[in-house]
Amino acid sequence: MAVNHLAAMIASGESETLELKGTTGARREAAMTVCAFLNQDGGQVLFGVTPAGAVVGQQVGEHTIEELSAELQRIKPPAFPTVERAPVDGGRSVIIVTAAQGASRPYTYRGSAYRRVGNTTLAMSADEYNRMLFERMHSEQRWENQLAGWSVDDLDVAEIRRTVAEAVRRGRLEEPVGGDPPDLLRGLGLLRDGVLLRAAAVLFGSSERLEVEMPQCLLRVARFRGTDRMEFLDNRQFNGNAFTLLASAERFLRDTLPIAGRFEQDRFERIDEPLYPPLATREALANALCHRDYSIGGGSVGIASYDDRLEISSSGSLHFGLTPEKLFEPHESRPWNPLIARTFYRRGIIEEWGSGTLKMADLASRAGLPVPEIDDDGGAVTVRFRRGQFVPLPTLGGMSEPEARRDMILALLDRTRDGLTRRELHAGLGPGVTERQVRRALKELKDRGLIISTNRGPLTRWKHRTR
């Protein structure tokens, strides 16, 4: 490595990915840092550079490298960082130790695990160590890749065929050699030695058997009045495989969520759309079904609809170092249930790995909604959609049509400071409302002192009295 390259590396000083040591006499402290790099995002240790950034080098012999290598071998499980020399003036060298993020985290050095915080190496907490250890064990032996003890007769064969046909059509699966269900499942990677995996049961199992043997294959849906859980308007549960639950969830959202109206500049007609973008809520539902922790027997996917928000939650927590903030940045996709997630991808429900949350944010922004919020409380992950500047169309319930029209007019006027003409209000109320009904509603609202008018004739504009 050239000296000018070294200078560029150390220009910004020590960081989460760079440690500077004057000599290999500090190799023990350096091995702690290499351990921390393996546990996080990788990094480099440079021997022969002072913490102030001065390149001094050191005499490097075979014994020097042997001692350093022996210290690095105390890292468990075995890791193999690269060690190279960069010649500098006076016959000296800088030793560069490079470690990428380890594939078998957590790593320990002399029996302790370490992590990097800024330019400091610290002992890892027991909770973080246990979380990493659990994730490592999960990658090797997961709930979804264990044998289910089911037969093909316990599955929805029609759903299997639909999935394979769609995967082939999208070019995400090769045409199967055989058309029998075991051949199709083998092509999806859901058989081991001819025996069904649990992922196959989650994806295609019959509702009757799932309800008894895997009660966590459950969807809970609720519609609340207001913004808390004090009063239910609807409360149901559905058992079934992942595709059945996805369909039930989407049906509940279609039946429950109001249509929202909005106006665009230079257009009198109101644009009516679902209150929350269906593609965004579908992405949230797919993520919940793919990434949830199925090992929790009492777990479920939940939908809670309030007057001011929609929440989609799933049992479990975020893993692999992901945080709610990182999910809205470009990130690597590491699904907790890769077999289930891969089948959703092949079916076309998930379009791109690692882009689901970015897609949700983009769809919400384009629909005029705030960016969705994500909470991880350790027991459940919740995606929350909040309302934007849409005008929800009232559902009549116990409200008469004239009352609904008056309520809608007040909602339309609530979105403008300059008021609206009768023509604009008529367009905003949508088809099926006559001009006479609009006139009558405006008169009743004015008589109640809720709205005022300015100007006369066609130039009359209506406003809230408080504005």
TrEMBL record:
Domain Schlafen AlbA-2 spans what residues?
14-124
The record, for PANTHER family, names:
GLPR-RELATED TRANSCRIPTIONAL REPRESSOR, SCHLAFEN ALBA-2 DOMAIN-CONTAINING PROTEIN
Which taxonomic lineage is given here?
Bacteria, Bacillati, Chloroflexota, Caldilineae, Caldilineales
Specify the protein name: AAA family ATPase
Gene3D superfamilies on file = 3.30.565.60, Schlafen, AAA domain
Give the originating organism: Caldilineaceae bacterium SB0661_bin_32
